[in-house]
User: Which sequence fits this backbone?
């Protein structure tokens, strides 16, 4: 639609303009012209509130903008709303109020059948890895592509590429129970990356790992971020957050209490 | 599309064997349910055959005294044939009657001692078929009035009237029982397959998180359910095939006269009913079980 107008100069341009869909196209163009950054925002939450059916208020008045390529720590005590926020981003839950944009899509207005497409643009990493025990490292990563209908000949090169990125090429044939915790988490990160997502969301990825291995995982996420992927990492790991001096968003009782670039992490 | 089908079928196959114990439990349940269903179908079709036989049997039989001269018999046959209620009259002489009886004994596998007596104890008879099983008219009086020719008139009117009302009731009851059993089977199979699906809930969760569409999550499980159905149906049909011989004989000795036949048409019907319900139940069970994981 955006390219169709210049192709019809002269009298056709006027004809296009009076058509309702033509008007819509122009209106959208105008929006994007006015706010050029809108194309470069990975995550945008505006005035988001979430109340669970049991009446518990998990989030209130949350505003958060994460531009493409940013690395953000999400911190806060247990029950502060970190998990709920992540669930909203992957549309596992819907906000009670406000709007949630992820990878350019309005999550709240999105029809259910388009949710899988959104999730392919988000890589998700969990504390408990969520690997399939009966599949090898390679097959666990390939699984993410198989179940989304990727043609077989594209799967293998994509899998090898991400395994090389996370440094697991040598362990590709091993099964999760043969791996250390750090290797399992790197497998999960490879799986999250294999769709080449715009955003990687990591929920306590170092929660089950000792400090040294945790650093390895953080280094890996930083490297992924350097390659252009936005990373949002929820964590309790004060040491890491303080040492890295990155942007820190702190939640408390469902509200953003601090959002500082290079901020510190208070002990909870 | 082809890739999707291949993917789904391969995953269904893998899934079936990976959870072998669960799958076997589901298959055994399915087999038991299908056997129950097949038993009911066989019973109902036997009942139906019996009922049809009885309804067909609405006829009047007159036994002829031994030694009656042939012209007298011919005259009686002509007289009865002239009645408006009568559709068909058949005369069976003593030799034919004996032969029929021997034939019947042979079919039922009973020993035949008739040749030992050296005489023929079976009387000749006239069988009268009616146009309408309910309208007898003067048939019975005509036969009974032939003094000296007819020894006895076997008239089944009141039996038939009672039977006709009973058969209608039995048919309705049979269909109701069949439907109730079908629903029960569906619930049990759904529950069993749900156990198999719950055992794989982690896998379903991962599929959802990496962006698998509902179809990619659902169809492998539906194919897996169908696999359970196919295996269950195959085992059921195998058991039925092995058991058909003894069951057929058992029924024949039990019911005796009524010629219930376990012929090819019943066999085909059973293959269709058992195979079809196995497939449908497996697919429906899986569909319902996976649904709970997809609705969010």
Assistant:
């Amino acid at each position: 639609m955006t390219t169709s107008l210049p192709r019809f100069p002269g009298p056709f341009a006027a004809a296009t303009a009076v058509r309702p869909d033509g008007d819509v196209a122009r209106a959208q163009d105008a929006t994007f012209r006015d706010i050029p950054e809108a194309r470069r925002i990975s995550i945008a939450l505006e005035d988001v509130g979430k109340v669970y059916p049991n009446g518990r208020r998990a989030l209130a008045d949350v505003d958060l903008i994460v531009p493409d390529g940013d690395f953000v720590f999400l911190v806060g005590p247990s029950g502060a709303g970190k998990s709920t926020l992540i669930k909203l981003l992957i549309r596992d839950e819907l906000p009670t109020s406000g709007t949630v944009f992820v990878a350019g899509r309005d999550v709240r207005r999105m029809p259910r059948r388009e949710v899988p497409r959104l999730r392919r643009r988000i890589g998700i990493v969990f504390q408990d890895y969520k690997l399939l025990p009966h599949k090898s490292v390679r097959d666990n990563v390939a699984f993410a592509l198989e179940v989304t209908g990727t043609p077989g000949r594209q799967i293998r090169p994509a899998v090898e590429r991400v395994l090389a990125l996370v440094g697991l090429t040598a362990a590709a044939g091993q099964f999760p129970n043969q791996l250390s915790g750090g290797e399992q988490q790197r497998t999960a990160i490879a799986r999250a990356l294999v769709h080449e997502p715009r955003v990687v969301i990591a929920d306590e990825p170092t929660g089950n790992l000792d400090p040294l291995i945790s650093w390895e995982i953080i280094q890996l996420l930083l490297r992924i971020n350097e390659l252009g992927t936005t990373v949002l990492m929820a964590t309790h790991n004060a040491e890491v957050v303080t040492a890295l001096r990155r942007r820190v968003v702190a939640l408390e009782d469902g509200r953003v209490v601090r959002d500082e670039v290079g901020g510190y992490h208070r002990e909870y | 599309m082809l890739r999707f089908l291949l993917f789904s079928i391969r995953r269904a196959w893998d899934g079936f064997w990976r959870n072998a114990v669960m799958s076997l439990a589901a298959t055994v349940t399915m087999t038991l349910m299908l056997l129950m269903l097949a038993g009911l179908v066989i019973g109902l079709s036997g009942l139906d055959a019996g009922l049809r036989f009885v309804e067909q049997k609405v006829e009047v039989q007159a036994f002829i005294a031994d030694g009656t001269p042939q012209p007298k018999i011919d005259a009686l046959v002509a007289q009865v044939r002239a009645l408006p209620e009568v559709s068909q009259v058949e005369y069976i002489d003593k030799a034919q009657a004996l032969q029929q009886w021997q034939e019947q004994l042979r079919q039922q596998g009973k020993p035949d001692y008739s040749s030992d007596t050296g005489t023929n104890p079976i009387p000749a008879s006239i069988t009268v078929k009616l146009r309408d099983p309910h309208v007898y008219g003067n048939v019975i009086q005509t036969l009974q009035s032939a003094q000296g020719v007819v020894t006895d008139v076997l008239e089944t009117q009141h039996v038939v009237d009672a039977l006709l009302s009973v058969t209608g009731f039995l048919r309705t009851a049979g269909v109701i029982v069949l439907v109730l059993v079908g629903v029960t089977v569906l619930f049990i199979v759904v529950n069993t397959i749900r156990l198999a699906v719950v055992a794989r809930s982690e896998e379903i969760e991962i599929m959802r998180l990496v962006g698998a569409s509902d179809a990619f999550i659902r169809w492998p499980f539906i194919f897996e359910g169908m696999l359970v159905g196919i295996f269950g149906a195959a085992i059921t049909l195998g058991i039925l095939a092995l058991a058909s011989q003894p069951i057929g004989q058992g029924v024949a000795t039990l019911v005796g006269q009524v010629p219930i036949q376990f012929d090819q048409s019943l066999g085909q019907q059973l293959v269709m009913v058992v195979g079809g319900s196995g497939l449908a139940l497996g697919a429906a069970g899986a569909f319902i079980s996976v649904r709970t994981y997809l609705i969010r």
The first helix of chain A runs from residue 11 to 18. Chain A has nine helices and ten strands. The mean pLDDT of chain A is 83.
